[in-house]
Structures are given as structure tokens and as C-alpha cells.
Amino acid sequence: MGKRRFNEKGRQKVETIIDDSETKKIKLDFAPGDEYGGQDNSNVLVLPSKKRETKIKKDRTVVTKILSKKQRKRLEKIVDQKKKKENRSSLIASLVAVQASKDDLSGFRKLSEVQTKGLKQHFKEQKYGVTYVNNAKEAGVAKIKSLVGSRRKRLALLRQAGPASVEEVEGEYDPNVVGLNDPSSSEDESEEEVEEEGEEGNEQEEEESEQESAQEDENEEVDKNQPEQESITEESSKKVENAPPEDVKQPNGEKEKPTVVDRKPATYIHVERDPAIQAARLKLPILGEEQIIMETISENKITILAGETGSGKTTQIPQFLYEAGYGERGLIGVTEPRRVAAVSMSKRVAHEMNLSTDVVSYLIRYEGNVTDRTKIKFMTDGVLLKEIEVDFLLNKYSCIILDEAHERSVYTDILMGLLSRIVRLREKRGNNPLRVIIMSATLRVQDFTENKKLFLDTPPVINIDSRQFPVTVHFNKTTPDDYLREAFLKTVKIHTKLPDGGILVFLTGQKEVNTMVRKLRKMFPLRGDKEGVRTGKKVDEKKEEVVRDEEDEFDNVYRGKPAHKPPKAKSSKRQKRDQLPVLPQINLDAYDLPHVDDTEGDRAEENDTASELDSDDDDDELNAANLSASVSELRKSQPLWVLPLYSMLSPDKQQLIFQPPPEGARLCVVATNVAETSLTIPDIKYVVDTGRQKTKLYDKTTGVTAFVVTYTSKASANQRAGRAGRVAPGHCYRLYSSAVFNDEFVEFAPPEVQQKPVDGLMLQMKCMGIDKVLNFPFPSPPDPVQLMSAEQRLLQLGALEQVIVRNGGQKVQKNQTLTRVTELGRTMAAFPVAPRFGKMLALSHQHALLPYVICLVAALSVQEVLEEVSLSEEANNTESGKRWRQKRKIWAGTGESLLLGDPMILLKAVGAAEHAHSKGVLEEFCTENGIRLKAIREIRKLRIQLTNEVNANLLGMNLAVDPDMAPPTATQIRLLRQLLLIGNADQIARKLPESDIKLKTDARKLKHAYNLPMIDEPVFLHASSVLRREQPEWVCYQEAYEAIVPGVVGEEGSDKTKMFVRGITAIEPDWLPKFVPNVCNAIDVLEEPIPPAYNAATDTIECHVRATFGKTSWELPASVVEMPKNMLRCKYLLKFILQGIVFKQLKPFRKSLLSSPDSVLKLYSTAVPRIDAALKVMLANELFNAQRFHELWQADPKFFCREYADFLPVSCHEDVAKLWPPVE
User: Fold this and answer.
1) Boundary-marking domain end, from 419, 436, 463
2) Could you give the C-alpha distances from 181 to 112, 114, 119, 178, in angstroms and in order?
3) Would residue 3 count as lying in a domain?
């Protein structure tokens, strides 16, 4: 400190604050302060009477002092101690995690017990006693968080409790549990630190501990009044913990209600796993998050788990739940969007848990191994939706896992909406609440967290880091049009220049996959050529007759529809005819909606002859002229084990990707987007991503579909890249530029429910009692146009009916029109097929049609049954093509059989395949006749399922799948045509009349064109249709689609498109008003050629009508139908009653009638009182047939007696009264 100056206080420059509050209160009548002569601080007009108070403003600036060397050392020492304490706590925590259980330690003894203890320890035990406290919470001792002196404070607290307790504790000492008297002080400290970390990490545990300590204080007060104290053992502590505390009287005489804590005992189910599997499990990222995940699931009804590919969520979450005891409360259900994923995941989880398939089972559409012992059940989402119909609350389940939610399939979206309500209902019931876990790889979390209509309370989201190794993404500088050739070049370059590691190539469809596999196998063959044995190459060689010769180089490979700057192809007449792409036979309203995989698109390219047209590109890098020397060098490199992967591949071939490749060979899997999320392929280090996928576009209004190759979404691209980082740092080679990725790739693919027809979905929801489907809590609601179109189609099929409901209070009444399911609709929904096929099955019990309809419906419900081949002679002249074409013409037959059309070929093919199956030659038969083996097996499973459903729902039925089923007769074939018309009421086409062709130039082009009711453009029959040459006037079809005509340029420079229909059946136009009256408009009842007549057998009035079809009002020929139920029908029924035709007992009164029966039909009939009164009664009571009269006579025998007596003189009234009602 320096020397103080003289008068230092007076020399200071300070700021003085003057209190002017009293001066400001004085009011002055002078000019304001801002004008001349006003008051300011320098010109005071009024002096205060007292001295004003002043304050000196203190300078509060804090000057930071530099620490001295000694202080700095002391602080550094404190910091080091804290770091050591943190390291010690983590070390102790890790030791506790691997500490042996109490049962394991019970067989050992501490060395301190066996060895001689020193005098210091002996006197210490004599003075303080040997004390063991099992748990500080249970013993009623308050927690001490300080490490320093903790043991001393605990012993002091025990002494206060009394010496007896100390002696009893001494007697109950267990040396196998780390206690207070262990010689190591570090153990004491570590125990305290673990408790501190648990308290700091979980606030809820602190609250519970405070409540428990409060209860334990009350228990201590009660125990003091008891003469004897119980020994502190584990059993007694459990009793204290579970028993409710006794009421303690307060000083004011009131009893304080004890706080009841909801304690749930922890459940653990031990699983004996293989050590190798356990070691592999510990490497998964999700294992580190097990505690957080299970606590979140336990505390929340719904949990969203977002983990990228490779995190192990699909296989590990069911195991977590099983070990936590959820399998003891009910089933653990896991839904997968694909059947192959459900089967493979159930086998994998059973293998990891070392359990049998009786405990970990699966159930898919056609098969399953679920038993009474099942605890974990894998299934497709459609199976769970069917179970909800039977048991809405899902009482058998304790937990439901929705896997792969990012794919947004229709059933997954519906399940989310239903489960969000089921969870709340189960919670209200109070018994066994349901837990729902929504798992996804690239989940669009905003659709769930921000959708208050779906979830009232925002569910917690747990993000799991998944990719164990980094993946380097490489973009192309440019985006090539020929992505297939670019993928081949990139695969060759990776194989020849980069280190070992599996290669995964993503393409768009089955045809591209097979072509790439064939070329890669040719380029890098296996030494020894044994791959044919493992891959079933012999079967594939027979199918390859329809493709180009294998000696063609890769410039002939299918280029597909380019997604970026498509080149103009050559236009020639032959090319126009050959290049028409063939799309899959998919029913637009299929009940079992196809999911986002490659199944739908495979058929689009199956007959796409443009895919392998000869190319004139002389500068192709892989041309034979340029590669003559380089190919020989490439063949000397490491062999390549190339395997295909797509959804239509047989299961045994799909399993090959999980087996190790031959020694010395590199694995290469060429796959569609089915490999994005459903299957995990091992040992993949390199990913080649073309960035394309085959997308099905669906017109919500017309129902027309189109397949185009488009870019995938950014989420799918990231999913594909994630496949490369499983075993080591990987690389993803994207065959497009980063600019295209940023500008043209969408963030997420649109949900499937917004891109599909929802007929079967709406019917199923109506059967569940959901009348207002528009208000259902969809995660992503479908377009209202979709719902309206589906509702309209179901109304046409008769599955729904309109009902008028009156709502409102006493003053205001509002009528609301709703649609509800009919009995026919419930019957249709009982079959696991599309509603249109369900109606065919519901009506097929007549004339012994059931076996044929079941076979036909099963064949129409499965995609890709037949290998596509054009039935024209000039196309597909290969040996197999000629053989298939000839066989199908034989199956089509002539006469009625030919008019049944394409379904007849399917019927004959399935029947012949079933016969071949009974003889054990199914595979050879399918290969020889161009039938897909996998499709036939699926059809057989569906036939068995439909047969069982029919036997269960229809009494007296005992159907079976007959391998020797006789072909249908001509009459049965005609009835099958009528049933197909009834099922496809909204899919009818008419041949374009010549009068509608105005230009002569269009006459040849539109010669074979047809019209659809909802589309202005003409459509054409598909080349594979057997009725293409016949050109029937009216047809019904299974699918309408739009395809690009290669080589033909449209108006705006783009490729021209054409509309096609497939699955053709010829129909008669006079059937339309009779079988599908909902889509016909009856204009007038005709008196010629035959007037309306009453049919006593059917109790209806039949007549010839002049009618039109659809909104376009196509003219129909006059046909005999049931008369529409209106006033005209009442007039004719009254006429037939008066004539004595309906009721024979009234025929004697015909001579005494005051008005002739024919006068009822006159224009002046309503002016006659007796006629008018009778017609009003009939219309009001809906009297359209005799059956309705009988129903009303049961309630009132004299009904309609007075109205009929008015037509007779008074003398006949008594006779009519005695006769009435006129029934036999």
C-alpha cells in the first residue's frame, strides 16, 4: 500500500446526486422551461427552505487482481482433485456394471475373514461394532452426499437409533456385499459417488427418494414405540418398502395421509446367448442406449425411435422388451411391411436369443409358426389390421412395434391412427396398458410430432446414431442418361482397382438386375464354373432364350426411360410395334396393396423390347472392338461372386446373399430398392447408387396407372449410402451430380396412402364402424378425391349404402347423408382380396361356380403369373415364344371360352399347374409353358386360404383344391363372364364407333381403339390379349395404364404416350342394365316388343327398358331388367293386383271392378280419387312386390283392404272383408 495523500477524501472527484423531489413539487406560473425566461438549474426562481439531500455516487468497478503464485498452485490442486474424483466415479461405475451378482458371491468368503485381523481393527470393532446396512433408503437413514466424514456420520446416526439395532446389525452382517466396514475407503467413496451420479442424472429418482425417506421417518417413529425391534434384513426391508405406512397422529388430532408411491418391481428375464453373438451385439450402437430407451418406453404410451440403418433397432428392441418382462404380460408384436422381412427377422432374433421358433414366431398372409408359447410375434401390418377387426383393443398384446415406418405404407398409416386410439382406450381400462413403439430409419418426425389430430400428447423421439464407420460419398461430375451402362463401368472399376469389400449396386427393376448379373458374371467368371450349382443357373438359362444372345456387348443393355435429358430414339414401324412397354397386371383396387418395392415395376419392363435393342453407338467404351484387349486383362483379375436380389426372387436364392462367397471371390449384389431397409447384407463396403427407381403414378379420378423411372428421394439415397458403413469405412458412388441431388431429389417420398386406391381400406374401416373416414387421424391424410372415388366405387358394387341421419337439437334438425356397410359389404370384406373380387366370391355359390371363381380370383390377385409374350405371329419368334404363344391359344379355346378372354388363359394355366404339382413336375411345367413358379405357389396358397374362408362362412360347404378340376362348361363360362362384369362394373370399355372418327387420317390409327367412360383419349387392347384380333364391341378389363411409345415424338417434343387395357373379357351390352344397374341410367320403360309382366317365381316386375351407360350416356340396346322402384312400378303392381295376377284369390272380383286395371296407367289416373289414394299408400309403404304385402299383413291383417274395396261396389265389400288378407 502506498502513502496516503493529504486531504485525500476532499481531493477525490466524485459525482454528487442531489434530491430535487421537494423543489419539483412547487408550481410556478411562469413561462415553460424551453422558452426565454424559463427556469433551469442555473437560474433558480424559488429557493428551497431546507438544504437538499445529497448522495455521492460510488464507483462499483471491480478490479480483477492477478493471483499470486501460491494462490494459483492451490487452485490448480483443487482442479486436479476434482478431475481425479470424476475419473474415479467413472471407474467405479464401470466396475459396478461388471460386478458379480449376489448369488455368485454367496459361495465365496473375504480374505479379511480368514486372515488374522490386527489389533487396530479388533479394538475398532469392539468400540463401534461391526455394522452392515443393506440399503440406506431401506434402513431409514438419510443420504449423506459428502464424501468427507460420511462413514463417521452414518455410524453416529446408527448409534442414535439405539445399541440394540447396532448389535442386531452386527449379527446380520453379510461379508459378500460391499458395506460400510470394508477396509478400503475408496469403496465407500465410490458407493457414495455412484449414488450421487444416479441422483444428478435422474430427477425423478430424487423425488421418489424424498418420498421414501419421509415414509421411512414415519416408520422409525412407529418403531420407537414398539418394545422389540426387528432385525434389518433383506426380507424385512422389502416388507417395509411394500407395506403401506401407518397413520401418525398430528398434534391437532388430525391424521396425515401418507404419500402413496407407485412402486413397480423390476422384472428381468434371463437369456442365455452364445458368447460370439453377445460380443457382436455389444458392438451395435443401440446397446449403449438400452436404459434410456426402456425408461422412455416404460414412462410413455407411445415412443418414436429414429435410428439410421445399422443401429440394430429391428433385432434388439424386441429383445430389450422380452428381457424387461413385457413378454410375460402379453405378446410383443412386431409389424414389418414385407413378408420376407418378417420371416428373416423372426429367425434372426430367435437365433440371437437362443430360443426356439415356438417362442419367437412369425405370421404372414399364407403361413406362420405361432404357438401358445409365443412371446415375440413378427407379422406383416396387414395381419395386425385383420386382428384389430376381431379384437379392437388387442388384449393379447402388451407392446406393439411398428417397424420401417418411414416407408409410409397404407397399412402402417392406418395402424398408427388406430393404435393412437387403442392406447388411450387401454389406459382408461386400467389393466395392462399398451405400449407402442414406432421405429424408422429416416423418419419424417414432423408428420407425427406436429400432428395433434394423431397424437394429443407429443410422443418423445429418441435418435440413435447408427453408422459404425464413416461413409465417403462420391458424386459424378455429370449425370449420364445411360445409368445402367455407367453402373456397369463403375462396378468394373471398383472391382479391378479398389481393395477387398462387397459391392452393392442399386437398379430399378428385375430385368435390369438380371441383365447386369449376366454381364458381370461373363466379365469376371468364377474359376471352376460351379456357380450354376449354387445359383440355379440351369433354370435361368432356359428363361434367357427370350433375351438377346449373351455374346452381345453391353451397348445392347436396356437403358430404360432416362430421367435426365432423354435421347431421341429412331422411329420405324417395326420399332413402334416392338417397343411398347408392358406393365404389370395389377388390379387398381387391390385389397392387398403392394408396398414400396420393386414387385410392381418388374412387369413394366418384362416385355419392354426397347430394353435390349441394338445400339448404333460406335464409340461405346465397352464395344467389342475397343475392349478386345482390355477384357482379356480384366478376366485375369479376382473372380466376382454376383448375386441378384429383388422381391420376386425365390426365397432360397434370396438367402444366398447371407452366405459367404467362394474362397478368393468378391461378393457383388445387384439389387432393387428392396435392399434399402428390409434386408441387411453383410460385408458390403462399396455402394453404387444409380439414384433411380420405378414409380407407379396413379390418377385418382380415372384410375389409370403409369410406370416411369424417376429419381429417388434424398432420404432413400442416404439409406442406400448407409449400407456401405457396416463392417469398415465405406464408399458410396452416386451416378449423378450433386446439383441434380440438391435440385431434383425430393426430401422424402410421398406416403403410399396418397398414391394408391383406397377401396379395400375404406371397406375395412367401414366394417370397423368408422363411418366418417375423412375424419380418421391419418399421419398423412389421403386426398379427398381418393376417398370420394373409393366410396363411389363401393356404392356401385353394393358394398355401401347411403343412410340419412338426423342431427341437432330440438329446434334445429340437420339431415346428414352417411354411407354404411351393407351385409354384402361385410361378406366381401371377409375375403382377403380386393372388394370387386370379394363380390364375385360372395355371388359364386350358384351353379357350382365356386371352385372356378376361387381359382380365377386367386390368379387375378397375384401379379406376374405368366411370362409376357405377344400373341401376334410377327413378334417374339424365339423357340420359347412360339411354344408359349401356341399353348395360350390352345388354352383360350373357341366360342364362349374365347369370349372369357385372358382370365380363361389364367384359369387353364393355374389348373394345369395344379395338376403338374400333384405329379411332382411343377417346375418343369412352369419353365416349359412360360409360367412363373413363385406366382403359382402364391396362387396355390391363396386358393387354400380362400377355400378355407368359404368353408367357414358358408354352411354346408366342403370345398378342396382339386388338382383334377374339370374345365368349366359353356354355361358356366357364360356365368363367369357375367360375374367378371359384376366385379368390374367401373372398368368397362366400348369399341370406338366409326361415326366418332371424323378425320380420314385417323381412321387407320383408331381402327382398333376403344373408349373409356372417364377418359377422352382412345385406349387400345394389350398385345398379349387373346381378344385383340376378335375386337369385341363391349369388354371389361382388369387394368388401364399409360405407356410411352418409343421413337414417337409428341406435340411438345416429349415422347408420345398411349393408353392400354389388359385382362380383357368380352361382355354383352344387354347385361349392363341387369347386372350393374348402379352405373346405368334407365330412360324409359318400353311396351314393345313385350309389355311389362309380373314374374311370380322371382316376385318382380320385368320390363324392356331404354337405357344409357355411365356419365357419357352410351346408348344400350333394349334389354329385360327388373323395373326400377318408383311410382311407375307401383302403377304396374296395382294393375296386376286388380287383374288377380299377384293374388289369385282376388281374381273373381275382376268383373265387378269400378275402374279397369288398364286405367291405372293412364295420364289422368291421379285425378281418380280411388286410384290416387291407393298409389299414395303403396309408395309411402314401399310396396313394390308381394313379399312386402305379406310383411305388412303380419302386423296389420286389414292393411290395404279399404283401398282395394274402393275399386268394388258396396255389395262386394263384405265378401272382400271376409277374404282379406288374400293369401293361401
Assistant:
1) 463
2) 11, 16, 15, 8
3) no
